[in-house]
Amino acid sequence: MPKFLHTADWQMGRAFTRFETEDGAALVEARFEAIETLARLANEHHCDAVLVAGDVFDAQTVSDRTIRRVFNATKGFAGPWVMLPGNHDAALAESVWTRAQRLGAVPENVHLALQPGVIDLEPERLSILCAPLTQRHTYGDLTELFSGYETPERFIRIGLAHGSVQGLLPDEIDSTNPIAPNRAEASRLDYLALGDWHGTKQIDERTWYSGTPEPERFRNNEAGNALIVEVSGPGATPSVTRLPTGRYQWHQWRETLAVHSDLEQLLERLNSLPESAVVDLRLDGSVTLAGEETLLKALSVAEARFRSLRCERSGLQLAPTDEDIAALKADGYVGEVVESLREQQEGAQDEVARDALAILAGLLREREQEAAQ
């Protein structure tokens, strides 16, 4: 029974400049580790081939070192790899692919599908019908050519393409590089391996997006997988198994705090995340001074535990209670300043007032702690 691994959208060479240097470097390294994981899984599941449905590289201008490291990472699986250019690494006359060939970086078992056509893997009895992008954006269905491709008898017909299945993906996905939703049926494909949508998604029983093997953005779309596909024979319905491959989990939360229980629930959710979490948190609403102190301590602990944690708190107002003010011993003029800053948070200087109130509260707490020593 022919079996292969379907993957796509590696985006090698992507930079994570919005993160701290250490975190960005770790996220980059995880993408190379993902290729090694794919090779290991292909061996463990006795796959006949690995098919990469486009966007191996994030740009044409990636470094020579990145090119060499990508192909070095494939060496764990000695069987055939078929790599298809996508919109980020289109097969231009001069491209990242031609540079890889000049460097001598492409192993003999890696087939580069730089031209439309069929790659027959004879020992594996797989015919790979390839629709590479030769420019970043196209407006016709390149997979239409599949219908005219002849393949050897008893070979499994596998389509390999990169683009947008029309009418079946969320509205916000790029409408260029269209693919007909019935392509597998129309072109007598046993399976259509797609890339471009970064999450794992089934279109029909023969058509799948594998998604990227390592998440790289805050989007809940089932990223971080590879697909093991088995087809018992021509015309048979494929069996598709989803395997997790991602190292880091990306979480983006938008929370509004109103009462203390909201803060407690937020901190419980944070504590439940694994150390591999990449978290982007934005807080709105209000919190007491005691709650702010609890929050800051929890965020400090989480920053050290997670791969990355960024928290935007400019929309979170400080709402000191009578107990907060009493604990700070903010009476007299200082108490009046605290009250004034609390009111100013509602006006045009809301962020400045909030920061000033937080600083003042911190100074008052430090004074009390020193007095107690």
From TrEMBL:
It comes from the Bacteria. The keyword Ribonucleoprotein does not apply. The keyword Cell membrane does not apply. Keywords: Exonuclease, Hydrolase, Nuclease. One of its GO terms (molecular function) is exonuclease activity. InterPro entries: Calcineurin-like_PHP (IPR004843), DNA_Repair-Maintenance_Comp (IPR050535), Metallo-depent_PP-like (IPR029052), Mre11_N (IPR041796), UCP033093_metalloPase (IPR014577). Gene3D superfamilies: 3.60.21.10. This is Exonuclease. Residues 3-97 form the Calcineurin-like phosphoesterase domain. Pfam families: Metallophos.
